[in-house]
Design goal:
six-stranded parallel beta sheet, about 20% helix
Length: about 230
Amino acid sequence: MNEITIHSGETFERVFLNEPEVSLHVVQEPGSRVKIHVLNMPFDKSINRYTDISKQSCSSEAKNTITIEQKGENCSTEIYALAFLHGNESVTTETHVKHAVGGGTSNQLIKFVLADKSRGRFVGDLKIAQDAQKTEAHQTNRNLLLSEEAEMRTQPQLEIYADDVKATHGASTGQLDESALFYMQQRGIDKQKARQLLVGAFMKDVLATISDEKFKEKLINSLDSDL
């Protein structure tokens, strides 16, 4: 596992796009900021002219492991992950966030959209140590199944040993909202377009958190063309 240290006051941002394996261990010193995106999704070839990324499609099987250790006060951690899978593709995303010292924040938003016979798995391990008072930590996992044959497994794991903290977690797996589809069709939007709009909206809030505005715009435009 690749281990890096983010020193006091520094900011680290990284976007992983369609890597067959992501294995990253980040140690945060006081006041450091970390923002990570892990994306498994098809995208348009034109993005290659802006980045050095060569993998245009998802791997048939991918595993992402992100480990964060906040070892200093007032650290900030953001982890965003999106998997948009088709066919027999499979993605496992694991996050391990440990607040060893108080005063820090962490936010995780993990989403899967599964079509055909694809499979997703999320393991979210969040630990707040006894001395990590005044910590605020949030973990959210939302999954959308577009096929009856798609499969999702989610395992949130919270260990909280401090008393003065704010910590939340939530996980849900479901299909498209039929009432929303009906509402849109009643207003003249055909069913296929309505499905595209709902699926796109579900995914775009993850992409919207990317700091690089040009890259974010290219990914969102590419997503629109793939839906």
